[in-house]
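# nightly structure sweep
# worker-07 picked up a monomer target from the shared queue
# config: single-sequence mode, recycle default, output format = structure tokens
# input follows
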Amino acid sequence: MTSQPHAREVRARPRILLVDDEPRILNFVSRALRAEGFDVEVASGGKEGAAAALAGEFDLIILDLRMPGMDGTMVLRRVIERKPDQAVLVLSALDDATSKVVALDLGADDYLMKPFSLNELVARVRARVRGAARGMPSHLSAGGIRLDIHSRAADRGSGPIPLAEREFMVLEELMKRAGSTVGKESLLASVWGYHFDPTSNVLDVTIRRLRAKLGRSSIVTVRGEGYRVDVH
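# output follows
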């Protein structure tokens, strides 16, 4: 039987390989992606990551660049040489233009800088994984609010209400878990990234802006815990 290198196996749960030398990143990102329905394998370093990437079949590899021993650039070069169709998203703290250009020239499909927003990472993963976005809803409805995922606007019955990026991301998180209280730290991590200072008031400011646009009753404060959008 001849192999078909350009054909991808259809899976109910797309497979992701996460390669990073920081245990905190491995734990945080893998848990988040598994919660979104992905099958995630982790590799704690470049050598382990290269071996896993070449031995297995993955819909996407998420790859750090700055790692001891075999760095991400070496891993990327080796993987693309053997598997030129492999989708790779680089996740790196290197913010210089040269690092990004080199990674993309070597065959990476995308480049996201650390620190990062979890929602942005998940969105980019969905965009890069073939078929991962199938069946995703075009809108969310809860608490008398309809949130259009594509236009990123909310509607309370009187027409679309444009939302700023962070406003949309916070509201989306609350509506995805409608009826449940979402903790402040969870919202900060999901929207502003794992690094964000939990003592910052940026979330409270965003909630106030959402209430100004959608009405004070749109988002419930659960004192000492977080925020909630009611189901009905």
